[in-house]
Structures are given as structure tokens and as C-alpha cells.
Amino acid sequence: MLQQTQVATVIPYFQRFMQSFPDVEQLAQAHEDEVLGHWSGLGYYARARNLHKCAKIIDTQYQGRFPVIIDEVMDLPGIGRSTAGAILSLALNQVQPILDGNVKRVLSRVYCVEGWAGQTAVSQKLWALAEENTPDETVANYNQAMMDLGATLCIRGKKVQCELCPLQDICQARHAGLVNKFPMSKPRKTLPVKSAVMLLGRNQQQELLIQKRPPSGIWGSLWSLPEFESMEDLEHWLNNHCAYHEQSLQSWSVMRHTFSHYHLDIQPVLVEINAPMNIVMEDQSSVWYKLGAENGLGFPAPIKKLIEILAQI
Ligand code: SF4
Predict the structure, then answer these.
(1) Same domain, yes or no, for 229 and 175?
(2) Residues with CB under 6 A from ligand 1
(3) Residue of the nearest CA to atom 8 in ligand 1?
(4) Which domain holds residue 136?
């Protein structure tokens, strides 16, 4: 949960999660919807799906015990080399290097590593430095200290606290007065903008038509709104699938949601659908959702916000 997310945000989510799934077996046996419901609002939902898949693998292939061989840990969904190294070094004091964002920043500065860490050659160089520096003993302390150093003193931005840093004597960036040059950032590019029209189809029972998204792609397996490329497509779909008040068709202001690789401009359109509703459910993935009901379904943050607004009017 802490990957890409701050501690203060995570705490209530973590507590609710641990109450519902106190051990690996119970997590493995939970329905994916329930797990995603506990993640709703945290973003980066692949983490929840991977955690759930991990629990299932550990439950079935490892008799409920976490593997202790690095290759087996790295084979688990969502666990890369650094996370595997952190787990095994911190839990078992195995000699494994780590290279999370904080450690990358410290090493980039101490050794003035040129280039962006997302490039293979730069990443290989940083891993080589991480390996060289990892001690044979007390690895857990060393790895934790490196992460803490990057989280507290050798931080991003201008408030780096070199005067308190235990590495100040050997730090090349500090000696060269180039602390702010490292780590070098990714070459900038402007994010493309995509757009989508989303239907807020409400019936007279104050229920909203929602659809489950396919497991892969953005917002995989979460619940969302029926989505269309254009207003024409939405109207065409409405004409073919339901009786609705044309005068009730109401376009809301566009809402921008930014993913790591593009902006999505969402045009929400509210439509009051007549009762008795005669929507033909084309597949099992469409359901009517009672507005204001607490039923633990997982929605992406912008969709959750739209539903909350709709529930008020
Ligand atoms: S001396 Fe400054 S730049 Fe170098 S590792 Fe320490 S805090 Fe980071």
C-alpha cells in the first residue's frame, strides 16, 4: 500500500484491510471485488490485484508460508528485485541489495551517477553500486538505514540535509556542489490527452447503471460507468437500449483525470431512464447500483466522485 502512497493516507486503509483479511489464507479465499473494494480510492489497483494473486499462490503452492528464495519471491506477481531484496533482507537478514526510489537517490548523489534511472545502462550501474555497498552482515540494518536516509535527509527538492548526513565525507555530489543535479530526471514529454463520454444512467428507483471493466487495461476489474467515444455513440446506444427522457440528458463539466502516461478528459452525461426500464443487459458485467448504498464495490477515484455528486442531487 505504501508504494507511491503516503503513510498518512495508507493507515486507515491498512487497518480496514487487516481487519477483513487477517491472514494469507483469508485473503486468498476472498473475492476479488471485496479486495478491490478495500483499495477503492488508493489508486494503482494493480497492487491490490497482485497482492490477492500472491496470497493465492502462497496459499496453494507454498502451504501458506512465504517463500525464502529470491527467485521464487521475484516470481510472485508485482514483486520486483528491490522489493524481493527488501523482504528477504529485512525479514531474514539475507544478503540482498535493494534499490528503491530512496536508495537510488542516495547512490546517485554519493557517486554522481549521470543519466535517468529508467534507462537500462543507468539502472545497471546503480544496481552494481547497490551490490558493492551491501555488507555481508547486518544487512537488515544497512538496507533500512539507506531507505531511511533517502526518506529523511537525502530527500527530493532543495531541503536536503547534508550537514546531518553520515555519508557527507564521501558524497561526491556534496563535494562538487551538485546535490540538486542528482538524481537526473526523466527527459520531459507532454502527456497526450484522451477523452471519453461516460453515462450516468439513473432510473426512478435511484439506481445507477454500472459496468465491470475487463481485468486488463486501466482500472482493470473495477466497477465504472458505461463509456463511449463520443456523444453520438452514447445517444445511439441509448436509442437502442432504453427508454429515456431526451430532455433529461444533461452534460456535466468535463473532469480531467491524469494517469502516468496520459490525461483522460471525462465528459459525464446524466440521463434519467424511464421505468419500467428496458435496458438489455448485454453481458453479466452490467448491474444497477443503489445510489448511497454501502456495498463495498471498488470504483476508480473519479467515478467514485461522480457517484457521490449524483447521490446528492
Ligand atoms: S551528503 Fe547530502 S547529498 Fe550526499 S548522501 Fe548525504 S544528504 Fe545526500
Answers:
(1) no
(2) 106, 109-110, 153-154, 160, 162, 165, 167-168, 171, 173-174, 179
(3) 154
(4) 97-188
Residue 4 lies in a domain: no
CA 85 / ligand 1 centre spacing (Å): 23
**Closest residue CA from atom 2 of ligand 1:** 162
Main-chain dihedrals φ then ψ at residue 256, nearest 5 degrees = -95, 130
Q: Which atom of ligand 1 is nearest to the CA of 149?
A: 7
Radius of gyration of the chain (CA): 24
Q: Is the pLDDT of residue 188 over 90?
A: no
Say whether both 157 and 205 belong to one domain.
no
CB 1 within 8 A of CB 13: yes
Q: Last residue of a domain, which of 161, 188, 215?
A: 188
Q: What are phi and psi of 141, to 5 degrees?
A: -65, -45
Closest residue by Cα to atom 1, ligand 1, is 168
| 81 CB-near residues (< 8 Å, 6+ apart) | 74, 99, 127
Number of domains in the chain: 2
**Burial of 258 from C-beta contacts in 10 A (0-12 / 13-18 / 19+):** exposed
Q: How far apart are CA 193 and CA 264, in angstroms?
A: 6
Amino acid at 243: A
Task: Output the CA–CA distances (angstroms, integers) from residue 48 to 85, 218, 273, in the order listed.
Answer: 20, 14, 34
| pTM across the whole model | 0.67
| Closest to 33 measured CA to CA, from 310, 311, 289 | 289
pLDDT band at 275 (very low <50, low <70, confident <90, very high): low
Mean pLDDT, all residues of the chain:
92
Q: Find the 115 Cα to ligand 1 centroid distance in Å.
A: 18
